């Protein structure tokens, strides 16, 4: 029997978008991202996903983003002896199931409402722990640092920060950078074309959730927080360009500055600043 869940937060409900897109992609003959766990989860929930079926850009973007961050996590795990992977604002992400690397410890963190749903649908594993809290709080960060004093941390914040105001984003970045030098921080952003002009991703056009912050230039974060050093800023449309259609995949991708005004993928190393 399918489970129906009434979300208290309109932002929390957006977790169903990447879940559905990953499940849909996973059923393709040659998927960008193979995610059998997402297929099972999407099928287990009583929800009308048809509202997302015509969101072509989000459909590709969600799975490209997942693939990109999975690749960053795998590289990190290979590089360090005691890796800890923290999914901030995890929703119903299944990165632990996709990567399945026994060397690493995974944490999935989100609001209590979301973690309660995760616990029903995806039971915790010995190497996959859940944290019910807000990314705006710091207690969970201190707990992680104390629990793993010799570990190297990578934080993935996927499909989350655009729902927060810029001052909140800056505060979160500062709090991570202050505590986890030697680690990495990866996240996606919407550009200022969306945040300033009310342009929404195609999957959100009929949804109440709003884009509250935008960022075009990844170097700006280095000025906000000197201990964050840009590893790369990636243009979605240069990745798997045959899936974006002719205009986006062959023409627009050649103008990265314009693409960044809509969205991009960012990775930073966290260094100690005297």
Describe the structure.
With 274 residues, this protein is α/β, with parallel strands linked by helices. The chain is built from twelve helices and seven strands. Strands 3-2-1-4-5-7-6 form a seven-stranded mixed β-sheet. Helix 2 packs across helix 3 and helix 2 packs across helix 4. The chain is globular. It starts with 9 loop residues before the first helix and ends with a strand. The mean pLDDT is 91.
Range of helix content: 40-55%
Please report which band the strand proportion falls in: under 5%, 5-15%, 15-25%, 25-35%, 35-45% or over 45%: 15-25%
What is the H/E string?
HHHHEHEHEHEHEHHEHHE
Strand order of the largest sheet: 3-2-1-4-5-7-6
Mean pLDDT figure: 91
Q: Sum up the overall morphology in one term.
A: globular
Largest sheet: 7 strands, mixed
Count of β-strands: 7
Throw out a few tags for this protein.
274 residues, alpha/beta, seven-stranded mixed β-sheet, Class I SAM-dependent methyltransferase, methyltransferase, TcmP-like, transferase, SAM-dependent_MTases_sf
Write the layout of secondary structure elements.
Layout: H1 10-13, H2 16-26, H3 36-44, H4 56-79, E1 83-88, H5 95-99, E2 105-110, H6 112-121, E3 128-132, H7 139-147, E4 152-157, H8 166-179, E5 184-190, H9 192-197, H10 219-224, E6 228-234, H11 245-251, H12 256-260, E7 263-270
Parallel strand pairs: 1-2, 1-4, 2-3, 4-5
Antiparallel strand pairs: 5-7, 6-7
Helix pairs in contact: 2-3, 2-4
Summarize the structure in short.
With 274 residues, the protein is an alpha/beta fold. It has twelve helices and seven strands. The chain has helices at residues 10-13, 16-26, 36-44, 56-79, 95-99, 112-121, 139-147, 166-179, 192-197, 219-224, 245-251, 256-260, and strands at residues 83-88, 105-110, 128-132, 152-157, 184-190, 228-234, 263-270.
